[in-house]
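Supplementary Note 3. Input sequence used for the single-chain structure prediction.
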Amino acid sequence: MALVHIGIGSNINKEVNVANALQDLDNMFDHCRVSPIFESAAVNCTGDNYYNLVVEFTTSLSITALMQCLKDLEIIHGRKATDRRYAPRTLDLDLLLFDNVIQSESPVLPRPEILYHAFVLWPLAELAPDLCHPESGMTMAALWRDFDKSTQVLALAQWQWPKIAELV
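The predicted structure, written as discrete structure tokens, is reproduced below.
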């Protein structure tokens, strides 16, 4: 079984899409844990503010099978294959970490955004503060402590998934 961390983002009908995605992931995978939900301005695109969070779970799926599962969930929740790369999103599911796998081919692991987007690192540090980054060896808490927080505005979202306490 692999320990997996998935980044979730949404800025279209975000409460509904995030709640539905979390319910689906909880139904599909074992030992789901969910970070608090954070809100940030859209980065590299226009549109409403995003909700971002991280989900941790275990799976026996391969990286390829998991990526297909995540892609299928995005489509089920309204994402279209024709969506532009930096367009607003109903649901964005990104594989951040797959155990301690390091690979440079797609999907790149660990996902580089962990180190330079607050909306990825802060939820990850909240959920798994003692987890070590496979390349740097630093804990997520230490990476967040040292992160330059002056460049990106991020705050706890006013809305939190009602079932968060059940999964954490």
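The longest strand covers residues 50-59. The chain has five helices and six strands.
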